[in-house]
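re: that chain from earlier
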Amino acid sequence: MITSPGIGSGLDVKGLVQQLVDAERRPVEQRLTIRETTARQQLSGIGQFKSALSELQSSLEAFGDDDLFSSFSADSASEDRFTASASPSAAPGSYDIEVVQLAQAQRLASGAFADADTPVGTGTLSLQIGDASFDLTIDENNNTLAGIRDAINALGDDAGLGATLINADDGTRLILTAGETGTENTIRVTASGGDGGLEQLVYDPGVTENLSEIKAAQDAQARINGFLVSSATNSISDAITGVTLTLVEAEPDATHELTIAADRSPVKKAINGLIGAFNSVTATVDKLTAVGAGGEGSILTGDALLRGASSQLRGLISSQVDGGALRALADVGVTTGSDGKLSLDDARLNELLESDPEALQALLLGDDGLVARFERVVDGYLDGEGLISAREEGLKDRLDGLSDRREDLDRRMERVEARYQAQFAALDSLVAQLNQTSSFLAQQLQKLP
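^ sequence. v structure.
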């Protein structure tokens, strides 16, 4: 490559070659840049449209809940005393609830020992918690108060029992606490064999009680409409069909109302979600296809994909479903504004949910209901082999092709540059020869008489 002015001509060969190559490259490169920029912008626009359609697809999933139209709410008049939840198997009604007492776990304490390292004894310590039982071998390796605590805790959660130590003013005590509440989870401790020291930890109600009961096992109790109901835990789920009560605080002799009613909020949320997602798609399409005041179009103005999808979705809004009291979204109170966006008449929807929820369910969720129709259209665009994927692949292929053309252009420009360099080198050589001849002739003429 020539990197200095021509030896014979004095011309800036490098600069001239570069200018000629740039002049030949520039128009082709500009066309490629414009096409690449357009393809990338279109790919970005298709991505925005795809995202909006995905939100619409997600909003349709709310209608797949089997309990959408059969939900119930449970309203406690005093959540400081109890809370409640209702399943689809519940029935409307009201109940007076009195929280008599809360469930609690049994807790036992040993007598005071000098400290955690005080030996207690050896032998077999047998623990029974409810229907479960465990035998612990206590020997010289774990016969201290701390060692017995660790051996009990090593049984894990399945034992249903926890052990701790409390260092009080009068000494260290071993505390045993049942892992679950209720009278069915009482603790029984017996000892056998060894040196007899483990007898200090025996708790066999009615026989030997060397541990002190500092909290008795207790079932939760509540009165529902005056009838007593007990539970091993603070959750009562089998007293009222489909209703679970969670007791929070006892207040004997005081009643608070529980109201079970049909819950239409999930239906409202699903419909509003669908409308919001549809309006988002509309806004996205409007932005991507807008025409400016001067008539200039956006990157996807007139795009067949967006135009077709928008037309299909608008058609669904006005489409009718046969066979029911409600035939279209307009019957539900859904209207289309001048901007193409939807709005909902809440009063009309509430009226339908109270008077004829079955008709609304048939309109939305029937075999050929509106939700199924929306799903077919949206899935047709978003599926892996759908229209949007095909369009994205086409644009990516176009960008790959343009990238290949850039590489071809680079290779062609290398050949053009080499050709220009060769031509200028020949010109420079010719000029050098002519200059040499001129100098020779001048010298010869000076020698003439």
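Residues 1-5 have pLDDT under 50 and may be disordered.
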